[in-house]
Amino acid sequence: MAVNLPPPRAEDLFPVPGIDLAFAAAGIRKSGRDDVMLMRCAPGTRAAGVFTRNGFAAAPVQICRQHLLAGSSVRALVVNAGNANCGTGEAGLAAALVTCERTAALIDCSPREVLPFSTGVILEPLPVERIERVLPACVAALEPDRWLGAAQAIMTTDTVPKAVSRRVQIDGTAVTVTGMAKGVGMIEPDMATMLAFVATDARIAPACLSRLVKTVADRTFNRVTVDGDTSTNDSFVVLATQQALHPEIHDLDSPAGGQLLACITDVATRLAQSIARDGEGATKFMTVQVEGARDPDEAARVAKSIANSPLVKTAFFASDPNLGRLLMAIGKAGLSGFDPTAVNLYIGDLLVISGGGRAASYTEEKGAAAMASSELLIRVLLGRGAAATAVWTCDFSYDYVKINAEYRT
Fold first, then answer.
1. Annotated catalytic sites, by residue?
2. What is the number of alpha carbons within 13 Å of residue 75 lying toward its C-beta?
3. What CATH code is assigned to 285-405?
């Protein structure tokens, strides 16, 4: 089960003016549960996104990149779970395009205004005819308040749906931001996340929206990792329906731009953290905070070296204070001119490493007690500069191996 992550409540997820949602069971997943989600956007909706850098990018990612140009108008998103449509060649591209064409015909828009997304097993042909079969029912069922069901429909091995809402006042106008995400394994995003969709009714210029989505991704989804594996299907899209009555935002550094950026960042942060909390087989949620680096990239490199180490993650699962694993992970980050005697490290409030060695006040009993918590802060002070960052991750349990060994069964 997810670490301290209760399922969202439908009443806490605010409808976004200009967004309607529906979902259906197409039979792509073997479980028989809902596995297709349709999001319809009002005319004039603008979108921007970032996608995986994995060289085996899935067919829907390739189509999204073609459709999602600067200032693109988007009228619909179609997501299927249970099949990644990756490693499927020309047939996979054709299937993704058919999804766009059928959706466009049903809601009266151009196929280029439809974005397809897939998640699930790689190398399996996408049964697109099953998606086609349920699309008319989805269109007939579209409603603005179906965020919870939509978040459930895009799940694969997630144990809880992930969805968050916030509201913010911009120039005296109430603006809504609601987002959903899925992902618990094959997680170390690179310019994106597994699948994440955030919608707002804010009015924002295309160039500003493109900058916003990249900034948010770097601050949130690019700071979460479960196992260090970047998915072939990672996608993060922000949709702005332009329905709010405030003046259009042209500058993220303006007061209005800053308010919208902060609100969307808050939603994305909570979604990103929920992915780590629901990591496959997770029993502990871990924040790795690195301070005193020369620059943010250096801080992130050390943080991810710790967060992605199977030896570190299994030690924390067992609450085994094997400090050598932490030193190993810091040292392998490959920092130029690294001075190990400058490093201090805390687990929670407990100083465990001082000046590059075991702290004089540290005991194994204290270490084991600190590691036993389900919420952990690993704080590394490098003593090299003023830059800092944080990465969110989870431990590795027996269930991580079991879930992935049985992933296709």
1. 193
2. 17
3. 3.10.20.340
